[in-house]
Design brief:
2 copies of one chain form a homodimer.
Chain A: E1 24-30, H1 34-45, E2 53-57, E3 66-70, E4 87-92, E5 95-100, H2 103-119, E6 128-130, E7 136-140, E8 160-161, E9 164-165, H3 169-181, E10 186-188, H4 196-199, H5 207-218, E11 223-228, H6 232-235, H7 247-263, E12 269-272, H8 289-300, E13 306-310, H9 330-335, E14 346-351, E15 375-380, H10 396-404, H11 416-420, E16 429-435, H12 451-462, H13 468-479, H14 485-505, E17 543-544, H15 563-568, H16 578-581, E18 584-585, H17 596-620, H18 627-659
Helix pairs in contact in A: 1-2, 7-8, 12-13, 13-14, 14-17, 17-18
GO biological process, one term (chains A, B): xylan catabolic process
Catalytic activity (chains A, B): Hydrolysis of (1->2)-alpha-D-(4-O-methyl)glucuronosyl links in the main chain of hardwood xylans
EC number (chains A, B): 3.2.1.131
């Protein structure tokens, strides 16, 4: 127990149990698809630990108490239509059946079974009928071949080190289990910013290594994609152009794709960041993003490959003096006019908000605006702007708000979840992707609690309607089975309010940014105020906020009605997004009844108190906690408190100096 | 002429001449000290280029027209008392005599002769009687063994690359000529921040290389010093302490010094940055700086070595919330109480201002406060905070103001120059040192004009009373002999106002900082406002500035009277230092008659116009300039203009947003 926090087992796939079982597991794995080997391995490494004895047979001997197989292999008549990834678990004749249409469904069914076993559910009470809401449940690694991870807060890259592949099979299998256990079915292994070394991942120099990884992940239902450099025809192909309408360029890509699929029949396709933050793209040739994406998609098409094309395209060399440009408009302005112009294996990848993964943003108006173009939503699991796995910030509540947001794109009740799942738009929604938060740290995510973000992402990607509280409890129960229930309850309650707490002591009322430039940790109110990144708060002695109304940048008009009008109107704009949409005086009264300035003071004082409360709660359990876990979390909490105090004081002082308005409650604001 | 700006010759030691000579040079070098070989080499490589024919003999044949020798070697009776570095040049019996007491005087005399030759002075009209005002005329390199230069803007290190010495003899000799030609007589070759690699410079691994360099520089009258790591007994000595009062530590240093002098008899000693910006020092052991310095000085003493101990000691982990601590007080508070406690071969090294080489600071009150402790003033030639050799900023006017500053330390007319030269304090002043601005760039200093800062430093270190205008003209005449006089005049006039121009568009009225953290180039009004570095402007909606009066941090009381009172009093405090000493409202009226806010606006608008005027002047000479020089300077000017515009707009916008006060002249201030 002492080493729990520095142990790869210290996650929801732990083999510890709070309730020891007294049964034997007599498992029949009926069938011979490759996935059965995976399930057998999972059974031996995980499920078997919970039973007094385990035996696995490859046919139903009649003595087994759990039978796994496809409807076909079991000779049963398929009843529910759960697709290739769905599964059914039921008991019949005193035995438990895990049945699916295809082998990937069996894998997910087995994980469901494993979860219930961990949680102590009696064997014959396990019951499920599941299919994922989303086609793609993807993660994106921002890993570089030198072993660094862009925006990584959990140690070095899992895949790369020193310019090469780590090729650590045990680690890779553990990681594949981690991902597939929460239903993730696709991943990219390299950074969307594809630098020189990584541009060569598609060459014969590295393809065997990529193929090795792809095959390993495929055994867990995970399809491997690569991020590519749009300028590859030049940088590695020896051409003098990457113009998508040049035949030589299209031909070059066709040859590359043919070669890749020759090595990796299961290859998923490419992810591309083009014409964004100094990355090359079709704009260099006066071509559209559709031109660029379709050319690549055409090369992938014969092999069933997909092209993920990121919509994170904006002017990152904006002039802060230029008040006519609004970065928030960029994704919509670039891509909405191209709706319908993309090939059917192009999937646009849309960041959840119009800026960049701030603690609070409006939902991207591009989601809902695309009627005839495949797309996924992109979230950020890694806590770039939300505490960097030092501060606790459990993000599923944020994601849930986004997924539940009613875009009104096809009238009322057109939620983001229904759009991205394709339910509300005839299948153009293709699911979800997210920048992942994992690395070589023994606990995978730097902060033990941050694992819950990966867990929650998988759960919501599978079923966006799932109860948040159930997710949090399930994660805690599985991860810390050895802790008393009341301790797990504390952990869950900390997690559940942590996003709002983080928001309260950082940038106020949806304005975002105010972070230290570059690394993005800690406060710096003016850190991006005079930068070229389009990220401003426009605070002066009278007020603050960005005017995105019709009189301002008119960003509000990118939303369907009545959403746009709700944001346009000061009276109906939600408090938490007020400064994202409006420039208001410090004395403006929020719907909460507080003035903006008093809200800034109150939320920043409160945020620090909340972090202190986290620490007090943690301390109250000190005797019940293993020393290593206690210390691990305590050290993080201390750093979080220091960060929260610094945020509180810098933000409060900044706005006191600006506004000259005293705190109504006379608390300490440094002059 | 095309490559003039990328040629090592493109400096004041150029062998081009505006006025070709028709004489022969028949030189007798009478004597055989090692320095004669140096002078012979200089004559061949430099002076000879100006004459139609040159012959050098090692005795006076009677036919020579220039004779160089000591009073002794020439068998003449010494008349003026010019010390070991002084010299006399006079004509007698139709021949020119360069005579000195010692060989170093001959070297400087020869450089004087060379300068006059370059400038076209007729041979027999050359006449001089010179001795340096300062004992030490030193420069400090902040070079690291990996080849990088801390705060270097002129390329890679001259001495180091890739963890080793460059050992490029030609380059080293050229560089030694450059330094000695302006009278510099001592240097450190490595960064005062002594990292792991450089800590080993005093070990046998590197001593042969150091010795090689020391010997080479010695040939040019330059004494080599090393920056050392105070914690060396631990980091390289294997001891578990660096406590200066531990016998084992003192013994260890004695053995090191003995070994060093065994290899390098001419070795100058050590420079130490201790207990400063995370460098180790005696504070770790509860010892004083005197304890630390004296222990090292004792080891150096038997060999005539000196210990330079930097007074740049302050709390770099200050809390911005703590208004009771004032970094400006630190050097005085640390060192004034120790006056008299240092060994006589310890030389305290005092930064010219109390902060850190800002464009405008008050003079350090520690200069004048030390009555019984040897010291030098430390300047910064490299333009860390003054444009980084992108913006033109000719610094001798700043240094001259500092040197001419009347500290009143021993009553009226106790100037800094007289203190640091020792004239006003019985020899405790030991001269000047400065962080140098040179590197491997072909023109030595990145910006061709920035050479003038090194030239001017040498001139003022030799003679602080020298006319600034003469220095600037002399530098331009020697460096650009091929340019028409009117072009040189333009260059001189740009140089002479460049410091004030730089000041006008950067941080106002002595407040300093407002730069981008880390690299220190470009504006960032709040860049250091909430940092731990003790560098604040305390701007709020009503006013700005740091209260260092008796009611504030009482820093003013560190000055002798009436200086302290002059700063204390709002009416007598000079405008240019107002915000360094006082927190005032934006509406405060300066002695200039302008309000503070209008001064901020005016100076920032004016600064940009001045840079435009520089460019216009340069353009007006385009036809007269060699293309390479034209382009080199034009590219720098364009970057300077962009920088000035950014400073103007960020500072003006920041203070407009803060104060809400309009510019009286209605110019564009972005909202």
């Amino acid at each position: 127990m002492e080493t729990v926090t520095t142990d790869r087992e210290a996650c929801w796939l732990t083999t510890e149990s709070s309730k020891p079982r007294t049964e034997k597991l007599l498992l029949s794995l009926v069938g011979d698809a490759p996935m059965f080997a995976t399930i057998r391995r999972l059974c031996q490494n995980h499920a078997a630990k919970f039973f007094v004895e385990t035996a696995i047979t490859d046919r139903d001997t009649g003595k087994s108490n759990v039978i796994i197989g496809t409807w076909t292999s079991l000779g049963k008549e398929s009843t529910p239509n759960l697709g290739s990834e769905g599964y059914t678990i039921f008991s019949e004749e005193g035995r438990l059946w895990i049945v699916a249409e295809e082998e990937r469904g069996l894998l997910y069914g087995f994980y469901h079974f494993l979860k219930e076993i961990q949680l102590g559910t009696p064997l014959l009470e396990i019951s499920a009928q599941e299919k994922p809401a989303n086609v793609f449940r993807m993660i994106n690694h921002w890993d570089n071949m030198d072993g660094s991870v862009e925006r990584g807060y959990a140690g070095r890259s899992l895949f790369f080190e020193g310019g090469s592949f780590t090729k650590d099979e045990d680690c890779m299998r553990s990681y594949a289990e981690l991902l597939s256990s929460v239903g993730i079915n696709a991943l990219t292994i390299n950074n969307v910013n594809v630098h020189e070394q990584e541009s060569a991942l598609i060459t014969n120099r590295w393809l065997p290594e990529v193929a090795w990884l792809a095959k390993l992940f495929q055994e867990y239902g995970l399809t491997l994609f690569l991020s590519i450099n749009y300028a590859s025809p030049i940088t590695i192909g020896g051409l003098d152009t990457a113009d998508p309408l040049e035949t030589s360029v299209a031909d070059w890509w066709e040859r590359q794709v043919e070669r890749i699929y020759g090595s990796i029949p299961s290859f998923g396709g490419f992810v591309v960041k083009a014409d964004s933050e100094h990355r090359p793209g079709p704009f260099s040739y006066g071509r559209t993003h559709a031109d660029g994406a379709n050319m690549l998609a055409k090369a992938l098409k014969p092999y069933g490959g997909h092209l993920f094309w990121r919509c994170f395209v904006y002017d990152c060399l904006q002039d802060w003096r230029d008040r006519s440009t609004d970065r928030a408009r960029a994704a919509y302005d670039h891509f909405a006019p191209l709706d319908g112009a993309f090939a059917d294996n192009v999937i646009l990848q849309i960041k959840s908000g119009p800026m960049d993964f701030q603690v609070r943003e409006a939902v991207s108006p591009l989601i809902g605006a695309l009627k005839q173009t495949k797309h996924v939503i992109e979230l950020q699991i890694t806590q770039e702007y939300t505490g960097q796995q030092i501060d606790v910030c459990y993000l599923p509540p944020q994601w849930k708000e986004i997924l539940d947001f009613d875009t009104h794109a096809n009238g009322k009740d057109t939620t983001v979840a229904d759009l991205v799942s394709g339910r509300a738009n005839g299948g153009f929604g293709q699911g979800m992707t997210a920048v992942v938060n994992t690395g070589r740290d023994e606990n995978w995510t730097g902060h033990s609690f941050a694992q819950a973000n990966l867990y929650g992402y998988g759960q919501l990607a599978w079923n966006p309607k799932r109860c948040l509280h159930a997710i949090a409890e399930e994660w805690a129960d599985r991860t810390y089975p050895y802790l008393p229930k009341n301790v797990r309850k504390t952990i869950v309650s900390i997690q559940e309010c942590s996003w709002i707490v983080y928001e309260s002591y950082t940038s106020p009322l949806g304005i975002g940014w105010m972070v230290n430039p570059g690394h993005h940790y800690g406060p710096n109110v003016n850190g991006y105020e005079f930068s070229p990144w389009g990220t401003y708060h426009f605070s002066d002695r009278n007020g603050l906020g960005v005017d995105r109304t019709r009189k301002g940048s008119n960003y509000v008009s990118q939303y369907a009605e009545p959403v746009g009008s709700r944001y346009e109107n000061l009276q109906t704009c939600p408090d938490e997004l007020l400064l994202f949409f409006h420039h208001v005086p410090y004395t403006h009264v929020l719907t909460s009844g507080k003035t903006v300035i008093q809200h800034i003071y109150d939320s920043h004082f409160d945020g620090v108190e909340q972090v202190k409360a986290f620490i007090a709660a943690w301390e109250s359990h000190k005797q019940e906690l293993p020393e290593a876990l206690y210390q691990h979390v305590r050290v993080k909490f201390d750093a979080q408190l220091a960060n929260a105090v610094e945020w509180r004081d810098q933000v409060n002082t900044y706005y006191y100096r600006m506004s000259g308005i005293e705190d109504k409650h006379g608390r300490t604001i440094y002059r």
